[in-house]
Amino acid sequence: MTTEATTPTTPVADESTVLARIATLLRELPDAGLEDAEIGRDTLFHDDLELESIDLVSLSGLLREEYGERVNLALFVADLELDEIIELTVGRLADFVVASLRATEES
Amino acid sequence: MSRYLIVVPPLTGHINPLAGVAAELTARGHEVEWCGYPDRVRAAAGPAAVVHPCTLPATGELVRPPTLTGPAAFRFLWEDFFVPLAEAMAPAVTDAVRAFRPDAVVTDQHAVAGALVSERLGVPYLTSASTSAELVDPLADLPKVAAWLTDRLAALRREIGDPDATGDPRFSPYGVLAFTSRALIGDTADLPWDRVHLVGPAIAERPGDPDFPWDALDPSRALVLVSLGTANTDAGARFLGEAAAALDLLGERVQGVVADPGGQLTDPPPGVLVRRWVPQFELLGRAAAVVSHGGHNTVCESLWHGLPLVLAPIRDDQPIVARQVAEAGAGVRVRFGKVTAPRLAEALRTVLDDAGGHRAAAVAVGRSLRAAGGRRAAADHLEQLVSAHPVASARR
Question: Would you say B247 and B268 are in contact if contact means Cβ atoms under 8 Å apart?
Fold first, then answer.
């Protein structure tokens, strides 16, 4: 399937670019107080950033705007066990985005 | 005349609504006894309450470090508190049912032993939802987490319930009393409607405070109450400090009152009244707005008085309740762990400014909460439960 009409072009699904982009989206979350937060691969979504599951929903929408329908964070989160949700890092989110982008590039 | 057994965990917010229902049932001539933790029950329901005492689990009372939030708090809550609590309470609930022979049981959703023992002994029971959060299926988007909880509830059922029974013990097949209203939970929530009774808050008479310095309050300024409820005494030091500073920033127009049960504000600003204990319900009658962590009882009592809210949810059901209030337009939410005094002052200005519509929305939600019937509606449902199952007690 193609979503070229609505999907901004992201030529290479580069890991550090995606990580940096997710960090920016998180810093811009309204009222999250993360404007100056240090966000890296190992940053914990819940314990370090004090984000909640509702923030994952917001982030899911922002990623869709950014990368199109091929990045479905809600589907990824739905497949996580409780322990995996507790230990969710920004790096794991980035890996998921990169894998989704590469999967569509290859197809 | 019927006999009702009320089963509750050692959590004040879960006992308070049922204390109102117990008072109503007693006033109608029914016999009410409790199964739970005597000091907690009597603090809410009065010194004359008859309580079948339960032992605490080995893990003790619910104490969580302030930093334990989000999904980790959820795991702790079930694994280290509600599940061991059910195992610890089950023998006492069984004994209480056999000794008191109630016509019906009403059990808090999180005192799971009440539901499982009732189903095993064949007593009709309603579950009590002391918060609106469980009604909106908060784990709908997290199926593996929902399955994790279902597995634990199933294991408890094999241990203390009827192994052949099915269904979620938090939602009794006989019905659920939910102390909230449609205006708060929102239109989109999909409920098992025929058995969830939205009765609104059941507000019980609570003792006032003869020592409260009412004269110290400046009636020319808008009264703002800051309260983090009864269960977060050690979690709130930073937040209470920012809140007191925010009240000071607004000191020209706002008279701040801060409930500080842990005595953590050692040097509050001069114009702000800080007390370990406050007569919350009386204060709400005079207040213009409330700052809270989003505990369901405080939120409903505030909305009952038509007061807009600034909510700083800490964990558990609070983020969901805060979202419901924000979506109803009756308040704004801030981040508990991150909000600063200037940001909190700005949020308070937003809800105090009537042009923003928060007060009007709060008044509308308050109207729906009052119209839901409260303790009387809850007592009606309990009476109907017994008339629908009249021979239940004779069988045992």
Answer: no
